[in-house]
């Protein structure tokens, strides 16, 4: 199987599962008997475990030849970890299972991105067009599982997660030809500590942590909030799908529209879209405004993510790429989201939808940190 088809398929299957997990897992936890504050704690603990898992898994991958075996093991263990939720749904069991699952399952995200960064160099992969299959699958999952839960109940969230992970494991077993390999004269990848010490790396990580972390309340509580405002789960699925449809357009047009933009400009555009988006969502739940806010997902998430990927794949030396992907996933997509999820769980019962406004406040420091170039001293001589 060609590298492009293999990676596109893995993106599609992972984000199909993620399109179930992100909007609907809190609904399944509620179905299992968890209250809003406990859900926030569970999601927050899960994100902390995600951070630790990303660092643990990705720190052991120091060469391109390690990527495919790691994908296969992670897919298999992820399948087992979700299946374990059938066994016990007590409060203690949910805590243990959420931590265990989040150590394993989310590490598939930076692993796939590391594969993409490798294939960009090795076979000139068009990242946007490979990644958009993940976004398309995310929409399918949003709509399909929204409809399933509307008709058959929230237990279908778990059923579909197990099906998705089973398909991903089977896909991972297929061979990639040619497989990812080191380039001639390329040295072994840097350790996480070496990557952390690179110029501008800490500022970059704080910026992307603030931008991606600002999505925490949306990820964890938007479905619950909109359901309480009278929207059916199928409508919520359409709203989530609309946001990712806007993301697909940006990914498809990445080379045509954004190839000349620096990482800093992409991140700034993402920050501005985030400010507008969270302000709208904190102000109204009218469907027309929610549609506009969801279209801004193309900026708040997608442009921010493209900016991060551009910095990692274009502005860093090759030996720093895998480590940078690990830190980005662990800190920006993991730890910061975890902290803000826990905060959201505490604030939501008091503030309700106004919690979105606090997510806009989180973005403001990122705008200030982006006042100067990220790449001035990035490459080492």
From TrEMBL:
- What positions does the domain Major facilitator superfamily associated occupy? 6-349
Q: Where in the cell is it found?
A: Cell inner membrane
- InterPro entries, alphabetized: HcaT-like (IPR026032), MFS_assoc_dom (IPR024989), MFS_trans_sf (IPR036259)
Where this protein primarily resides, as one coarse class? membrane
> A Pfam family for this UniProt protein?
MFS_1_like
**Key word Cell inner membrane present:** yes
What keywords are assigned to this protein? Cell inner membrane, Cell membrane, Membrane, Transmembrane, Transmembrane helix, Transport
* Bilayer topology: Multi-pass membrane protein
**Stretches that traverse the bilayer:** 5-26, 38-58, 70-87, 93-111, 132-150, 156-174, 204-225, 231-253, 265-281, 287-308, 320-341, 347-370
The family database entries (NCBIfam families) matched by this protein are listed as: mfs, PRK11128.1
Please state what the protein is called. MFS transporter
Q: Which organism is it from?
A: Oceanisphaera marina
């Amino acid at each position: 199987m060609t590298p492009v088809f293999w990676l596109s398929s893995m993106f599609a299957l992972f984000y199909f599962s993620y399109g179930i997990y992100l909007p609907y897992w809190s609904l399944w936890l509620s179905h299992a008997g968890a209250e809003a504050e406990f859900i926030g704690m569970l999601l927050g603990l899960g994100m902390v475990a995600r951070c630790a898992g990303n660092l643990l898994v990705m720190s052991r991958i120091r060469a391109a030849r390690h990527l495919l075996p790691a994908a296969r093991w992670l897919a298999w263990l992820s399948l087992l970890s979700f299946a374990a939720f059938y066994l016990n749904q007590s409060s203690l069991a949910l805590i243990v299972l959420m931590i265990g699952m989040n150590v394993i399952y989310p590490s598939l995200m930076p692993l796939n991105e590391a594969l993409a960064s490798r294939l960009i160099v090795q076979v000139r992969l068009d990242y946007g067009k490979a990644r958009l299959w993940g976004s398309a699958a995310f929409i399918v999952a949003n709509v399909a599982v929204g409809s399933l839960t509307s008709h058959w109940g929230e237990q279908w969230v778990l059923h579909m997660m197990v099906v998705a992970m089973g398909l991903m494991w089977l896909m991972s077993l297929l061979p990639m030809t040619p497989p990812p390999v080191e380039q001639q004269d390329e040295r072994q990848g840097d350790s996480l500590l070496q990557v952390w010490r690179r110029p501008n790396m800490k500022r970059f990580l704080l910026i992307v942590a603030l931008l991606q972390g600002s999505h925490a309340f949306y990820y964890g509580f938007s479905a619950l909030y909109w359901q309480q405002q009278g929207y059916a789960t199928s409508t919520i699925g359409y709203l989530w799908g609309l946001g990712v449809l806007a993301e697909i357009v940006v990914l498809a047009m990445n080379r045509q529209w954004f190839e000349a933009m620096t990482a800093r400009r992409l991140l700034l555009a993402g920050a501005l879209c985030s400010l507008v988006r969270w302000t709208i969502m904190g102000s109204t739940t009218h469907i027309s405004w929610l549609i506009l806010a969801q279209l801004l997902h193309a900026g708040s998430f997608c442009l921010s993510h493209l900016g991060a990927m551009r910095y990692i794949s274009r502005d860093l030396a090759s030996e720093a790429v895998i480590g940078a992907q690990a830190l980005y996933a662990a800190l920006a997509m993991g730890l910061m989201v975890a902290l803000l999820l826990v905060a959201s769980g505490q604030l939501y019962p008091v503030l309700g939808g106004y919690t979105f406004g606090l997510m806009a406040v989180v973005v403001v420091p990122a705008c200030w940190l982006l006042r100067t170039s990220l790449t001035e001293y990035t490459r080492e001589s």
